[in-house]
Specification:
Blueprint: E1 6-8, E2 14-16, E3 21-23, E4 35-38, E5 43-47, E6 53-58, E7 62-64, E8 70-72, E9 78-80, E10 86-88, H1 106-140
């Protein structure tokens, strides 16, 4: 199963499905038989069938001098204010085929989920017990 995250707008810019612009005016004309590769430094190259490499672009990998100048715009997007400065990362590294570490501790969240499930089962049994007692009371009727 693949999940579509990116799309193209009417003038072929790469955008998120939420219509936010990602890459503007980046077009790669790749002849048949060529492959695109991205190395660890962010260099985008076209490779032909015999291994000749032609650099066709570079991914800008930057850091922000003062992260407090980043302002949340929409969803998970941020925008740097006018006084903020981007600076290139000295030794960038793109790791192909991997995901960045999440801000969630998987073991801790799994333990919480198990604990919540146990609590749900306990409360369900208590409510079921009260319902059974109530049914028995209705069967016995009231004493007057």
């Amino acid at each position: 199963m693949s999940i579509k995250i990116f799309d193209r707008d009417t003038i072929r810019n790469i955008i998120l499905l939420s219509r936010c612009l990602i890459i503007k005016h980046f077009v790669v004309a790749c002849n048949e038989g060529k492959r695109i590769s991205i190395n660890a430094l962010g260099t985008i190259s076209a490779l032909d069938a015999i291994g000749n490499r032609e650099e066709i672009g570079r991914i800008a990998i930057v850091d922000i001098d003062d992260r407090s100048r980043l302002k949340r715009t929409a969803n998970t997007m941020f925008q740097l204010d006018e006084e903020g400065q981007e600076r290139p990362v000295q030794e960038p590294q793109i790791i192909s085929g991997s995901l960045e570490l999440a801000n969630v501790n998987m073991v801790e969240e799994m333990a919480r989920m198990i604990n919540n499930n146990k609590l749900y089962q306990i409360y369900h049994k208590v409510i079921k017990g009260y319902a059974t007692i109530s049914e028995k009371q209705d069967e016995l009727g009231t004493v007057s």
